Amino acid sequence: MKIKYFLVAALAILGLAGCSDAQNDFPEVDSGEVKGYLSLRLTGDVNTRTSEGSEGTDGGIPAESTITGVTVLIANNAGLVTSVHHPSITGVQTEAFKVSLGTHYVYALVNNPGISIVADVTNINDVVEAVTSAAEATSGYKNGKFLMVNARNSSTELGGVPVNITSNHTITTPAPVTIKVDRVAAKITDITTTPTVTSLANSTANFVTGVDVDGYVLLNVRKEFNVLQKWGYNNYSNGAPLNYEVLVGVPFESSPTILVKDKFFHHIGEYTQLVKDGGGVITEINNISSSAAYTATDKYMTENRPEIKFYGTDEITAGRGVTSGVIYRVQAKNGGGDLPTFYVYKEEIFASRTALEAHEDFDGVTLPTAAGELRGKGIKVYENGVMYYTYFIKDPNVAHTYGGKDYYGVFRNSIYKLNITSIKDLGDDVPGGGTVDPEEPGTGEPGNPDIDTEEAYIQVTVTINPWVLNTINIEF
Q1: How far apart are the first and last CA of the chain?
Q2: Of the ranges 20-34, 154-168, 251-265, which one carries the lowest mean pLDDT score?
Q3: What backbone torsions phi and psi does residue 370 show, to the nearest 5 degrees?
C-alpha cells in the first residue's frame, strides 16, 4: 500500500535480427502449446500512491527508486503461481516474453533479492520472507536495493493484475498490463530541531532547563514480512476477529518457548541488560548501548503490525516487546551546559551521589558504586545527564484506521517523519526504562507489557509520505 511505482506494459518495439514482420505476426508455438507475449514498461513516475495521507508524498532519493531487475509471476485467480519469468531489461523496458494463452494474474517482484518462487507450488498470498540480518532490513531490504511488489490495499483486492493473453498478442503486439508496486520497506526520518521544554523545566523545578536531542535508534525491527501485503480481521493470538479490517502482519506466536528477541532485530536487549539472581530477581539494569549508535540519519525497517490490544473504552494499545518504534537519546542541560550524572529516587531528583546518600532511607547503608546495581535497588541513574525516550509508532494514514482510530504499526512504502515538538518530563535512565525483559516470552509481562499511553513524556508529530509521508509530532 502507500506509494506506488507504475509498471506499465507497453508495445515492445524490439529490433530482432533475422525475424520478418510476417513471422512476428504469427502466434508462438512452444512444445506444441500456443503462447502469446507480454511486455512490461517500468515508468519513472514514482510520486503517486493508492492511499495518500494528509501529508502527501515524497519522491525520496534516487537509490530508493533504482530498478535493477524484475521477476514476473503469472498466477491464477487464487494466487497460485503457474510460471515465473525473468525478462531482461534495458533502461525501463523489458523484453517481450512468452506466456500461455488465457486469463492470468500478473505480479512483479522488482529488485527481487532471491525470494524462492516455485511454479505450481507457491501461492503468492502465502509467501513470507525471512530477513537474515539487521543490515538487510535497515538498508531498505535488501543491501540498498529496494524490493517492490504489487500494491494491495484491502482484502477484497487480489493483488495480481488480470490480463487475457490471446494468440493475437505477438512479439510486436504484446498484451498491455499496468502494475502499481510498493516498496516493502518503511523509512524513518527525524526532523526534530529544538523541542519546547517549558513543562519539563516546571516538572523538575528548573533542574533541567534545556535539552539536546542526540539522535535515535530503531526498536523492534521484524525479522519476517509478508511479500504481498495482507489485510483482514485477524488479531493473531487471541483468535477473536477484529471489528474492522486492518493490516495483517506475520503473526507473532505467543508461546512460553518463543522469546520476543527471537523475532526482532534491534530489540530492547541490544540496548539494556537486565541481570537477575538465581531466583529471577533483577539485581542490575545496565545501559549497554553505544552513544555513537544514536544518530539523526534516515533508517529503514520492515513492515510490522503487532496485536491490537484494548483498554478503557475501546482505547488502543499494543505490547512493548513487539511494537516497532524508536528510542531517542537526549542530553539534559541547565543554563546552557550539560548536566552531570544525577539520580532520581522516589520521584525526587538528587544532583549528586552525596545528596542521594543523605536520604533517610540510606542512613547507615553503603550504596553500591556501579550504576547498574543502583538501578537494581530502585534508584534511577542518569549517567552524564543523559535521558532516553521511547516512541512507538502509530500509523496515521486516514485511509486505514481502526474505526477511525490510529493503531500501532509501520506500513510498507511509508516515510515516517518524526518531530519531537515538546518534552514534558524526565525520560528513562536506560533505553526502554528496563520495563521489557527480552529473555521472557512475548505473552505478557515482563516480556511484552502493554504500552502505557499515560507515560508519554514527549509529543511527536508524525507525517507519512512516496513514499507516503507521515509527520509525527512527538511530545514526551
Answers
A1: 30
A2: 20-34
A3: -70, 140
Provide mean pLDDT across the span 216-226. Answer: 97
Mean pLDDT, residues 36-52: 57
- E-assigned strand segments in 136-278: 148-150, 161-165, 178-183, 185-190, 210-219, 221-222, 224-226, 230-232, 246-248, 264-265, 272-276
Q: In this structure, is the dihedral angle defined by the CA atoms of residues 12, 18, 21 and 26, taken in order, positive or negative?
A: negative
Cα–Cα separations (whole angstroms), residue 65 to 5, 70, 131, 253 = 9, 13, 21, 34
User: Residue 55: what pLDDT?
Assistant: 63
Burial 271-301 (b: 16+ CB within 10 A, else e): bbbbeeeeeeeeebbbbebeeebbeeebbbb
Segment 255-296, tens digit of pLDDT:
677 788 889 999 999 999 999 999 999 999 999 999 999 999
For residues 59-89, b (16+ Cβ closer than 10 Å) or e, as one string?
ebeeebbebeebbbbbbeeebbbbbbbebeb
How many whole angstroms from its chain centre is CA 259?
A: 20
**Average pLDDT rounded to a whole number, residues 405-431:** 95
Greater pLDDT, 67 or 126: 126
Q: Which helix (H) or strand (E) holds 450?
A: none
- In this structure, the strands spanning 221-222 and 264-265 are antiparallel
Q: Would you give the distance in Å from CA 291 to the centre of its chain?
A: 23
Q: What is the total residue count of the chain?
A: 476
The confidence band for 46, taking pLDDT boundaries of 50, 70 and 90, is: very low
Burial class of residue 163, CB neighbours in 10 A (0-12, 13-18, 19+): buried
d(CA 234, CA 242): 6
Burial of 8: CB neighbours in 10 Å, binned 0-12, 13-18, 19+: middle
- DSSP SS3 for 81: strand
> Residue 218's closest CA among 57, 62, 410?
410
Distance of CA 179 to the CA centre of its chain: 23
State residue 418 phi and psi, 5-degree precision. -100, 130
pTM for the whole structure: 0.89
Cα–Cα distance for residue pair 432/25, rounded to 1 Å: 66
β-bridge mates for residue 284, sequence order: 275
Residue with cell 531489461: 89
Spell out the domains of the chain, with CATH numbers in brackets: 3-183 (2.60.40), 187-475 (2.60.40.3690)
Asked whether 97 and 165 are in contact (CB, 8 A), the reply is no
Residues in CB range of 10: below 8 A, 6 or more apart: 39, 40, 41, 93, 176
Phi, psi of 223 (to 5 degrees): -85, -10
Rounded to whole angstroms, the Cα distance separating 398 from 63 reads 28
Largest Cα separation within the chain, whole Å, is 102
Radius of gyration (C-alpha) of the chain in whole angstroms: 26
Q: How many CB atoms lie within 10 A of CB 38?
A: 25
